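User: Here's a structure from my thesis project, written as structure tokens. My advisor, Dr. K., wants to see whether a designed sequence matches the one we expressed. Can you design one independently, without my sequence as a hint?
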């Protein structure tokens, strides 16, 4: 509970959107917190941990990001953390899932957590849908098969704003990777690694 109290205090620093009040923020926080606590230790949440989720949550709040994309909805756990943060910045999340069973299950979880209004969930192949999305975007999280990592990145790189971040889950900076070598070679981006999880964090520093 101490962690959630800290996150709530951080949230109060972020300006409210016109549709929000302190009461509505508190009500939503309580509902999301109750949902997350109920899910702790349950295997259905897969490999995405609360510490991973807090990293995404805090990064969105700190940078006041509002236009986010989630490549690979999966269980919906990462989307819940991102949508929770976006509910405070006045933003919204587009999340993409190719598997209909996982997609339907995630929709139910978004509703249960009270975050459905902040999520635009798409049942689609991300490789096909990403080039069709209208940007710009300021935050992208990729948690899909890394065999397509470069294709996913290239599909949204031009629509990422300067100062925006592209996170890739499931990679580490201490091993060989053609994908990571590719990211490091890009002059318009800077890539680093989160020491608390398996993330690469790529920041767009210029348009060219």
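Assistant: Designed independently from the structure alone:
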């Amino acid at each position: 509970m101490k962690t959630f109290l800290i996150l709530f205090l951080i949230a109060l620093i972020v300006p409210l959107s016109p549709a929000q009040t302190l009461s509505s923020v508190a009500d939503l926080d309580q509902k999301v917190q109750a949902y997350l606590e109920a899910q702790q230790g349950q295997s259905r949440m897969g490999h995405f941990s609360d510490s991973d989720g807090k990293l995404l949550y805090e990064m969105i709040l700190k940078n006041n990001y509002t236009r986010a994309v989630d490549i690979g909805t999966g269980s919906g756990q990462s989307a819940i953390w991102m949508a929770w943060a976006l509910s405070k910045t006045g933003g919204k999340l587009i999340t993409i899932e190719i598997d209909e069973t996982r997609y339907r299950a995630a929709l139910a979880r978004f509703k249960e957590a009270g975050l459905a209004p902040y999520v635009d969930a798409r049942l689609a192949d991300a490789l096909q849908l990403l080039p069709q999305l209208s940007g710009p975007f300021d935050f992208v999280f990729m948690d899909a098969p890394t065999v397509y990592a470069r294709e996913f990145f290239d599909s949204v790189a031009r629509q990422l704003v300067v100062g925006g971040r592209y996170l890739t889950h499931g990679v580490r900076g201490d091993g060989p990777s053609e994908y990571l070598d590719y990211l490091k070679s890009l002059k318009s981006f800077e890539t680093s690694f989160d020491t608390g999880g398996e993330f690469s964090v790529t920041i767009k520093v210029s348009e060219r």
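When you compare it with your expressed construct, this may help: The helical segments are 2-13, 22-39, 50-63, 77-89, 100-113, 126-129, 149-156, 178-185.
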